[in-house]
Please model this.
Amino acid sequence: MKPIALQLYTLREECQRDFPGTLRRVAEIGYKGVEFAGLHGMSAREVAKLVADLGLQVASSHVGLPTEHNVEQLIEEQQTLGSKYIVTGLGPDDFATVDLCKSSAARFQKAAKLLEGSGLVLGVHNHWWEFEPKDGQLPYDILMAEAPDVVSELDIYWAATGGSDPAKVVAANKRRIPLLHVKDGPLVKGEPHTAVGSGKLDIPGIIHAADPMVLKWLIVELDACATDMVEAVAQSYRYLTENGLAEGNR
Model:
């Protein structure tokens, strides 16, 4: 079993109101780690201490695309946090044609090269548009082929919403998938997600398709939910841990 983390974007409203208190609640539920989506006014050093005091680990961080202008600051912040993976993505317009897909892949590859020697690895997070074919090719496949130094933080829900079988995507790319974004729902764009295990995805089948030697974290993320979000976060944790799919602290 792999450790379970929470993408804190899921609780973004709670984080904005009380970031330390939200981290404490995540730890109380039993999550082993967190994935950051901003530090809500705190310094990296302050957050690193808080996370350590709560017995949490840093799975990864969502940040902007590394460039020559911001890479030194990114590296310093992420090293302070103790994050190995930094994850980013681009919008649908950046994957609208095959040529744009290749151009976007080149940007990711360049960014990955900027991190060499830092101990950080660049991951790419997908949405559904990377799984909508362009001239018979999937933007995701173009990206993985054209940017060999990036890894994939595969969002299994968006892969399915885009029309792909996420278990097959995981199996085909398992050597490049150290992080899985685990979310669930009705597989309808614009409709809210559900707690993991309550939607239409075959969560066990998808997780078991991963390479256990490569996969490091299962990261729960819910963009929106029809029920109370904190309860959905707790329910997702219970589903994954009680079914032997992930390892928590409780």
User: Anything to note?
Assistant: The domain at 2-247 is CATH 3.20.20.150 (TIM Barrel). The longest strand covers residues 2-7. The two ends are 14 Å apart (CA to CA). The CA atoms of residues 87 and 164 lie 22 Å apart.
